[in-house]
Amino acid sequence: MKSPLRRLACLPLLLLPWLALYCWYSAAQTGKSCVAQVEVLDLIDRGAPVHTTGLLTYHFESNDRALLRFAGELKISGKQSEHSYKINRTAEVALAIVGDHVKTTTLGASRSFADDAPDELVYRYAHPSLQSGSYYHARLYRITADLIATGTDLAPRNLCNIAPSS
User: What is the distance of C-alpha 121 from the center of its chain?
Assistant: First the structure.
């Protein structure tokens, strides 16, 4: 009778290191931010340049959730006129990091009163995850302990500084 009881008593001792590692990983991600300066220059219909600049921030709320925020400006320069839009949007995303890939699904998104940019331009030139229900898949490249490059194969790379949230 002693043998099964000893085995049962050893089970928590075997699981304890894995539980501690899981809790440490969850706590290590919570309260951190990823901050990236974004600049995109592209040509659209009839060669009109679109220039987007802004600050992209992820605030990690838990191990599988983050708050994405983009604040910046989008300019379209035509031959006779220039349109300038303010972008100020926030989205809550569910994320999963698998190896060197990150997959996000946007749970909800909103714009501030100061945002006057057309949705389709924001999704294309600022970030596709600013649209509710969108799915985004990118690769992660660790440059240093606190610097990560991320992006898709067809998109520019964002350099993200990992720091404690302020």
Answer: 18
Residue 149 identity: A
CA distance 125 to 17: 44
**Under 8 Å CB-to-CB from 113, ≥6 apart: which residues?**
none
Strands 32-43, 49-62: pairing is: antiparallel
- Indicate the CATH number for domain 31-164: 2.40.128
Q: Give the DSSP letter string of the chain.
A: -HHHHHHHHHHHHHHHHHHHHHHHHHHHHTTEEEEEEEEEEEE-GGG-EEEEEEEEEEEEEETTEEEEEEEEEEEEE-SS-EEEEEEEEEEEEEEEEETTEEEEEEEEEEE-TT----HHHHHHHT-GGGSTT-EEEEEEEEEETTEEEEE-TTSPPEEEEEEE--
Cα distance between residue 105 and residue 64, in whole Å = 11
**Is the whole model's pTM more than 0.85, yes or no?**
no
130 with 104: CB under 8 angstroms? no
Instruction: Dump pLDDT digits (tens) for 16-73.
Output: 444 443 444 444 455 788 888 888 888 776 678 889 999 999 898 877 899 999 999 9
